[in-house]
Amino acid sequence: MEQYEKKKTELSETETEIQKMIEERHLKIQEMKDSVELSRADTDREKSDSVQVFTALIRSVEEGLAQLLDLLEEKQKTTEEKAEVDITLDPDTANPFLILSDDGKQVYYGKSQNLPDNPERFSKTACVLGKQSISAGKIYFEVEVKNKSKWELGVARGSINRKEPISPRLETGPWILMLRNGGDYKANGVLLSLKSKPQKVGVFVDYEEGVVSFYDVDAAALIYSFTGCNFTEKLFPIFGPCSDDRAPLIITPVSK
After folding, report:
1. CA distances for 140 relative to 149, 189, 216, angstroms
2. Are 103 and 244 in contact (CB under 8 A)?
3. What is the H or E stretch that residue 111 is in?
4. pLDDT tops 90 at residue 160
5. What is the model's pLDDT at position 252?
6. More confident residue, 243 or 79
7. What average pLDDT does this structure show over 177-204?
8. E-assigned strand segments in the chain
9. Residue in 96, 98, 92 with CA at minimum distance from that of residue 120
10. Is 46's pLDDT higher than 90?
11. Which letter, b or e, does each residue of 183-204 get, where b requires 16 or more Cβ atoms within 10 Å of its Cβ?
């Protein structure tokens, strides 16, 4: 009996120790859970802080870029205003199929006219040059091209062959932007992808820098730039209304 009581006491003590171990284990598990929750909270806080910092950084970059674009746009606008030239069409260079307005500001494709075949006149290509030329400095002019499915516009050397079909080349020109099939825009053969269809095109030339740029005036967006050109003689604006329709190309006052 005494041995039984002793064994019972030992079992009771063992049970107490086991219960204590279980409680300690539960406490340890709870501490681990609390630690995990705290770590998760710290991680979430760090994520939130990082997102805020990154968002602020992006906003700062975007604001800086917007300011830079505004500055460049203002600088470009100032340059264009200084380079603005009042262009009129030269009837002595017009292909016989081209009809010019009396004020020399509009041209469209019509019926062939009986005109003298002077050396200045285009015979094989439906083009006409502007009277004004550039051999130094800058020029800028704007042309309305709406309601047309086909046109050509740019600048050409004064020595361009008027009696053969035009073949644009980067080295020798003419440097032109063209529309084909109502939606295919090309710059000397380079196919362009435009977000919108220009209704008015601005043409900018910097003779010394060898640059010819085309702009979508209404969208205030650059369409294309020829750079690194080597100009060695007078350049003239060149206009090709093409034969697909009778809507005119119109030289307009520069937008302010």
Report:
1. 24, 23, 13
2. no
3. none
4. yes
5. 97
6. 243
7. 94
8. 98-100, 106-109, 128-129, 138-144, 151-157, 175-180, 184-187, 190-192, 200-206, 211-216, 221-226, 235-240, 249-252
9. 92
10. no
11. eebbbbeeeeeeeeebebbbbb
Q: Token digits for 74? A: 């203002």
Token pair 């020029």 is found at 139
What's 186-225 look like in SS3?
A: EECCEEECCCCCCCEEEEEEECCCCEEEEEECCCCEEEEE
Band of pLDDT at residue 71, cut at 50, 70 and 90: very low
Confidence of residue 243 (pLDDT cuts 50, 70, 90): confident
Residue bearing tokens 């107490």: 16
* Residue located via tokens 């081209």: 98
Cα maximum dimension of the chain: 144
| pLDDT of 104 higher than 50 | yes
For 72, the enclosing helix (H) or strand (E) is helix 2-83
Handedness of CA 125, 131, 135, 141 (dihedral sign): negative
Question: Does residue 134 surpass a pLDDT of 60?
Answer: yes
